[in-house]
Each structure stands twice: as structure tokens, then as C-alpha cells.
Amino acid sequence: MVSRALLDGLLPAEVVVAELFADPPKVELFPQEAEVVAKAVDKRRREFATVRLCARTALGRLGHPPGPILPVREGPAWAQRAPRWPEGVVGSMTHCDGYRAAAVAPASAVASVGVDAEPNAPVPDGVRTMVTLPEERVTLDRLTRTHPAVAWDRLLFSAKESVFKAWFPLTGRWLDFGDCVITPDPELGTFTGALRVPGPVVDGVRHDVFRGRWRTAQGEDGSLVATAVVVGRQRAGE
Q1: Which residues contact residue 190 at a Cβ distance below 8 angstroms, ignoring those fewer than 6 apart?
Q2: Sheet of strand 190-195: strand arrangement
Q3: CA 48 to CA 28: how far, in whole Å?
Q4: CATH code at 67?
Q5: What are phi and psi of 143, to 5 degrees?
Q6: Residue 206: how many CB atoms within 10 A of its CB?
Q7: Which of 56, 86, 152, 217 is least surrounded, with the fewest CB atoms within 10 Å of its CB?
Q8: pLDDT digit string (tens) for 62-120?
Q9: Domain for residue 216, yes or no?
Q10: Range of the domain at 70
């Protein structure tokens, strides 16, 4: 049975999620968007189009009219694929085989959001050492023994991706895999990302630890794992 909710329910009520487990037969892009992927292979064009359909669906639920969602195209090369959201909106998009999703929220309610989805399968050979720290590998080995249904190295990779997506809009800076220590909780479906570099200051509060949630679910092409991070706003009196 294919799940119809992966990210939906992982995020607070202020964040709107739209997700799809398959590409529709045809998704209309705005001309500016079509230009971005005009030379891309078919797989890239389909994922680009469907994730933007998700984003426009989520934005519509916030009351925003349809419009192009273009890459930033500014700054260093690694930053140029970040989406440019409408004024007053924060958000994040993700796609992998068999899954596309977007999460958006009013910037007045949420400072930033990061989401990521991956196949629930071990990362390729050589990648595990590249994306994990020694202390994380100890945790991964323990969790693999006690909870073997989850590809914990992939979950950790996804969590770091979500942390980065929440970090970057607040700082405009790169965050290396070694700059964040992920600790998952297998029972609660949560994780922490403890930064090894100074965290961003939001509403006068420094965030040196990012907190997130995770979930696995069955998709069209197999099991998936998703992670989500939200950096909230400081309410008056808190």
C-alpha cells in the first residue's frame, strides 16, 4: 500500500505542505521556469515541474496567486538553486524518485523551514564517511542493530540536508556536513542538529541546535524517509 502522507503532519500548523508520489502527465510551467530546464534531461524537467506544482499548491493555500518559482541565481554556485519565494513567505522543496513536496509558511510565523526526502536505503559506498562524523557513526551502528528497518545513514544525510535548508536563508552561508552533529531519536521520530559553528540569531535568540522530525513511509518506488526542520519565531513575552 502506498502512503499518501510523508511530510504532511511532521510540521507545525503554520506550515503548509503539498506532496505528490507521482508526476502528473503534464504540468504547465511559466515561461521563465521552462527556460531554466530547457536543456535538462526529461527526468530533471519532470521533477522540476512537479515540485513547483506542489509549491504553487501550498502557496495557494496561503492565499498567494500562481507565479513562477525561480532559482535565486545569485551568489556562489552552490546557492544558486535555492528557490526564490514570494515576499513574506519562507519555504523549502524536495524531490527524489517517487516523491515531490514543498512546505511553505508566512515569514511572520516561521523564520525558516527545511524539508528533505530520500529513498530509505543505505547511502552509496564512500558517502557514509564523507557525510558523517565519528560520533555519529557510533550512533548509526547502534541504531542499525536495534532498529534495522530504517536506513540510518540515509536518515542522517537527509536530516543534515533539512538543517542546511533551514540554516541557509537565515545566514546566507555554507554549512558543511561536519558542522552539524545529528542525533536521531528512534522512538519519538525526532532529531537534533547541534551546530559546531555559531548559529543564526532569530528575534534576538541564537539557535545553536536545530530540532526536527522524521518519518518513513511506503512510496510508489519503495520505502522513503523524510526529515523536516522549522526555526520558529519568538513570541512576545517568551
Answers
A1: 184, 211, 212, 213, 214
A2: 110-119, 222-232, 209-219, 190-195, 180-185
A3: 11
A4: 3.90.470.20
A5: -65, -35
A6: 11
A7: 86
A8: 999 999 999 987 777 776 778 999 999 999 999 999 999 999 999 999 999 999 999 99
A9: yes
A10: 16-232
How many residues appear in the chain?
238
Domain count, the chain: 1
Whole-model pTM: value is 0.94
Asked if 154 contacts 121 with a C-beta cutoff of 8 angstroms, the reply is yes
Give the tens place of pLDDT for each residue, 121-144: 999 878 999 999 999 999 999 999
3-class secondary structure per residue, the chain = CCCCCCCCCCCCCCCEEEEECCCCCCCCCCHHHHHHCCCCCHHHHHHHHHHHHHHHHHHHHCCCCCCCCCECCCCCHHHCCCECCCCCEEEEEEEECCEEEEEEEECCCEEEEEEEEEECCCCCCCHHHHHCCHHHHHHHHHHHHHCCCCCHHHHHHHHHHHHHHHHHHHHCCCCCHHHEEEEEECCCCEEEEEECCCCCEECCEECCEEEEEEEEEEECCEEEEEEEEEEECCCCCC
Cell of 221: 518506488
Cell of 81: 538553486
* Rounded distance between C-alpha atoms, residue 165 and residue 102, angstroms: 12
How far is it between the farthest Cα atoms of the chain?
52
> In this structure, is residue 153 part of a structural domain?
yes
Residue 154 lies in a domain: yes
